[in-house]
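Case study B.
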Amino acid sequence: MSVLFVLIGASVITALGFLIAFIWSVKNGQFDDDYTPSVRMLFDDEVVKKKK
Amino acid sequence: MELEKFSYDNKIVKQFAIATIIWGLAGMTVGLYIALELIFPALNFIPIASFGRIRPVHTNAVAFAFVGNGIFMGVYYSLQRLCKARMYNDTLSKVHFWLWQLIIIAGALSLPLGLTTGKEYAELEWPIDVAIAITWLIFGWNMFGTILKRRERHLYVAIWFYIATFVTVTVLHVVNSVEIPVSLFKSYPVYAGVQDALVQWWYGHNAVAFFLTTPYLGLMYYFIPKAAERPVYSYRLSIIHFWALIFLYIWAGPHHLLYTALPDWAQSLGVVFSIMLIAPSWGGMINGLLTLRGAWDKVRESVVLKFMVVAITAYGMATFEGPMLSLKKVNAIAHFTDWIVAHVHIGALGWNGFLTFGILYWLIPRIYQTDLYSKKLANWHFWLGSLGILFYAIPLYWAGFTQYFMWQQFTPEGFLKYPNFLETVTQLRSMYIMRSIGGAMYLFGFIIMIYNMIKTIKQGNLLENEDAQAPALSKIEGSHEGEHWHRWIERKPIQLMVFSLVVVLIGGAIEMIPTFMIKSNIPTIASVKPYTPLELQGRDIYIREGCSTCHSQMIRPLRFDTERYGEYSKAGEFVYDHPFLWGSKRTGPDLAREGGKYPDSWHYNHMLDPSTMSPGSIMPAYQFMLDDNLDTSSTAPKIRAMITLGVPYPQGYDKIANKALMVQADLITAGLKKDGIETTSDKEIIAVIAYLQRLGKDIKANNQVFTTKK
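Model:
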């Protein structure tokens, strides 16, 4: 069952990548505001409309 | 702040949308065809149309061509707007698009020819695997490039789902596709038996998770709020949904191997994670549905939202069913039956299909600056599709239970009530007919959509480049003194890190995996021997014809399995199986202990016309095996590849392999002659017979006590 080392290795590396991404995103302030992104995405920035 | 002017690339979105529609039509048509083959076996009239060969065409076409292009369509549309930036590079977009279509065409041509690795959902042979990896990296490059030049600091949750998709699919594809080429169109996976099964279903499960689920969840989080014109129910929940889902999903693969020869603890681990998955999955479903809170009147009006609501509901049902199917007791009922086929189609037709349709109905009129040609036709599509899903799934659930109950029924005396497997197949005919009707309805609805789309496109005018404006992203200034250096560290390292991770993984995998694998090919059962050259050739024909799409080779330690098929399968029996051929569905009986059950002449006549030996059989006829000559020129390279993989053939065996092959073939031919069958030793059928007669023999001899019952 040595393939488990490969799979666990690959899975852990992937998971670590996500963990780093998670820590980065929290520190970067990505989730400081957990409401307005859901509203802002509703507005596209077509040229005709002036920016809100 | 000064506004920057730029434009969104709608042309690439249109291209992917059209590809989605074309491949969807192709994939679903093949699906209907193979469903009909189960009712009318005569439809298997030529080798390239036989069930075993084109079933992978159907699965690959709907998963990687239809849904794949759907992903790219949605990502290219939403990513630009969420990042307030045009795609990183137009050329990369084009290269990505055309390479992906070429890969699909290569798959559609090679699979019917029998060029397959035999690994479910990863059937494409190694040159195409390489092309997929390259194309996927181009997609990632283009995506990260866009993210890095974005004008919106916050990464909306959909983008996180896209990133997770890219990263994980890269890892899965690379690890699962490590194989040794034998020729341009033939390779063997480096893993064998149980190990290959574990890698394959780690991949297979996560292909569902990270190709059919996470990107579509990203699309859900973008297109449902857009179509409903209201924010997602809870943005906070969506963040939790994302992180919980990706951390749990990757460990659930072993639930595809319950009761098999996989070590028990690995099975249990897979079960535990599968059960936990219900939490984030349902969190996501609830978040999607509640986005429509207080706006259900819009669902009545908007066909787009109707499709999306059914899609999310199907997602919820499938992700409830999944954890339930992971429970061992439930799995014992469902595994190898049509229940699994029904489960998969709730996901594919309901979740992926309907979300794609919803997005298409929303997106095409928008980029063509017009209204949908006909709402009425779209409603027809919706109802035909919805009813089609029900007509498809319900008969198959019924079929699954029917199969299980017939398989496990014992008489009061303790014998199998239906010892003839065929009885449990012919019983399903009416359900297969119903299922085909459901599939046909779904397909018909899809064709109505195509007509509607063509009309919409004709009356509209494509806005190839949609102008937009947004302020540039202001730099967050750090304490570093050099501006140039600072900019470098802010832009490049992420790109660099991601790609170096990918490169390290690929390199590491290719170097380490074979080393691991070869060392572990030490047989744990002394009587298990490598295949003879003739058996190996026969096995490759078995793979070519996709026999494992209908025949499993895995006897579970359940009384109704061992009574019917013999001693349960042991991990040590498969150490030379590159690839493993356990299968996932029993449309025909298990073959793990087929060797010695019938005389050679039975197999000969059975391949000529299965219905003569088993009246009512729905198996395709394989007359061509009786006529075609075996290609013995491949024997030597195959043996050499196996030696490289650690299979203990004697040194230099590749040079004398064909001699051994002919000796064994002549014996079989002579035996057939005694039964009145005139053939020559160089036919493919001889190799197939040799392989089938070998199956399960290794330990049968040592376990007479166990297998002579009944």
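Chain A has a mean pLDDT of 81. The remaining cases will be described in the next quarterly update.
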